[in-house]
Amino acid sequence: MKKIAVVSGKGGSGKTMVTTGLFKMLSKTENVTIADLDVECPDAGIYINNKKITDKITTSVFIPSFIKEKCTGCKKCETACNFKAISFFDDAITIFEELCKSCLRCVNVCKTGALTTRKIDYGEISVYDVKGRSFFEGQLRIGDIRTKNLINEVKKLSEKSENTYVLYDSPPGTTCPMVAAVSSVDLVILVAEDSLYGFNDFQLAFSVVRDMKLDYWVLINKYVPENSPVMKWCNENNVAVGGCIPFSDKIHSHYSKGNNILELSEVADCLEKAVSHITGGAQ
Ligand code: SF4
Ligand code: SF4
């Protein structure tokens, strides 16, 4: 199985358009799975037609549960927690559920039985069949911070399929969720928005991918040949650009109405180059 993550430093760069476009193109000839790892705001499903839900899996973790009557006030749990998720106020502890990483160190150091465990749900994974191909969608519980946990669960599940390729629509940005999404993939498609803001965030995403020593392929979206900060920087830094999708109202309007992006040659031509790279062809 070849794992490909599509990333961009910034939201709105065209990452989901590229991921779902690649899924449609690759699906014509290959066994391919797509997984939406943008679990705080999954939207790849909007652009995937003919999908039938086959399963819904709730993801859970164990966190500490406090029994006040058994507490001696020794504060060992507060000291043991590396994430400041437990505080001792007056004569009782407060557990900050949102900060808890479920390591259960506090439960292990409490010798009176005042801390036990309880299960909480933090997300959901929807599994779809798309004409024989698979689509996994992670959705984090509103207000929860276990983004990385859910990303890892979605990845684990999607990698169980026997398909030749798995495509990850990664979360935007360059923080822990993005790093979790690209960890151990075989190829990163770096989507750069050709604006000054997009250029800044592309540089950040590029440095993460380079520091993690991952194989990458650069795609410039909303490309403006006569004034392209991304292309200029790539040329100056010997970074190969695999393909470009031009800045165009037509593309934006077509995509935002939910139409098949492969109907536009400006997009299809670029994604064909990416597919060729993914499948081991040219570029
Ligand atoms: S370690 Fe146990 S007994 Fe000590 S303060 Fe924490 S809950 Fe109470
Ligand atoms: S389970 Fe770990 S992170 Fe959560 S409160 Fe206990 S020590 Fe802190």
Question: Which features would summarize this protein structure in a list?
Answer:
283 residues, alpha/beta, Rossmann fold, Alpha-Beta Plaits, 2 domains, nine-stranded mixed sheet, 9 helices, binds iron/sulfur cluster
SS class: alpha/beta
Q: What count of structural domains?
A: 2
Distance between the termini: 20 Å
Computed CA radius of gyration, to the nearest angstrom: 22 Å
Which distinct ligands sit in these coordinates?
A: iron/sulfur cluster
| CATH homologous superfamily identity of the largest domain | P-loop containing nucleotide triphosphate hydrolases
Strand order within the widest beta sheet: 3-6-7-2-8-1-9-10-11
Low-pLDDT residue intervals, each spanning 5 or more residues: none
Biggest sheet record: 9 strands, mixed
Number of strands: 11
H and E string: EHEEHEEHEEHEHEHEHEHH
CATH architecture of the largest domain: 3-Layer(aba) Sandwich
Walk me through the structure.
The chain is of the alpha/beta class and 283 residues long. The chain folds into two domains: 2-50 and 131-278, Rossmann fold (3-Layer(aba) Sandwich), CATH 3.40.50.300; 60-121, Alpha-Beta Plaits (2-Layer Sandwich). The protein is built from nine helices and eleven strands. The chain has helices at 15-27, 76-80, 105-109, 147-158, 176-182, 196-211, 229-236, 249-256, 265-278; strands at residues 2-7, 32-36, 51-66, 86-89, 92-95, 115-130, 133-140, 165-169, 187-193, 216-223, 241-246. The strands form two sheets. The chain has a nine-stranded mixed β-sheet with strand order 3-6-7-2-8-1-9-10-11, sandwiched between helices. α4 runs parallel beside α5 (176-182). The radius of gyration is 22 Å and the shape is elongated. The model has no long low-confidence stretch (mean pLDDT 94). The structure holds iron/sulfur cluster (2 copies). One iron/sulfur cluster binds at residues 71-77, 93, 109-110, 112, 114-115.
